[in-house]
Description:
By secondary structure, the chain is α/β, with parallel strands linked by helices. It has eight helices and nine strands. The strands form two sheets. The chain has a five-stranded mixed beta sheet. Helix 2 (79-90) packs across helix 8 (243-257), helix 3 (130-140) runs parallel beside helix 5 and helix 6 (182-201) crosses helix 7 (220-230). The radius of gyration is 19 Å and the shape is globular.
Amino acid sequence: MYTAGIDIGALTAKSIILEDEKPLAFTIIPSGSNSKETAQRVMEYTLNKAGLSKDDITFIVATGYGRVNVPFADKQVTEISCHAKGAYSLFSSVRTVIDIGGQDSKAIKIGENGRVLDFAMNDRCAAGTGRFLEVMARALEVRLEDLGELSLQSRNRAKISSICTVFAESEVISQISSGTPKIDIIAGIHDAIANRVFGMASRVRIEKDLVMTGGVAKNKGVIKALEEKVGFGILVPEEPQIVGALGAAILAREKAVK
């Protein structure tokens, strides 16, 4: 049996196909301005990788910011349920999930069998998200993918007091002008993100094991800063961006079996 999950986020679209319970192929592309076209494109890419046609897929679940714009999905499910299901399939010991996406972040408390017990979200401000890091990288004239490694070189992180993207950017520019090393500014940015995310996640009472998902989970500097706040190590999937789509595909299989 083939099932698929598709996750249309604010910045990236992800899709994955399962053969029974085994991942067969996945794709990650920029979301663009037209969610319907993006959904078609990311699904076609994944079908081509798997050597399948859409008729081969028994059930498709859509999730994410643009899930209602996936016309070929059999069902739409919230990101909360899908990230919980996906994280639990990868780490059965998970009790907390922190997902930091392009324009929002969320913390999910998970019980036995991956059941969602509680959640908290930051969906009204880009601070502490992928968009925030993009803005900061541009201000620093550093590649986004280099931020993590650079921040690990810092021994004297700068203080970034603002949690607002606009004001934080002004702070960063001011720090640059005053001669603060870029590695220290980047470490300060990561610490500011960790503070904000930790505050949000504390509302669901963080417990081990903690799994981090979303594109920002690829940033080692953010992971390190957040580990300092929670006081223990964080588990990161091999490809943290597809966890929501994976959860959607697993839910699609469950629906198909029923």
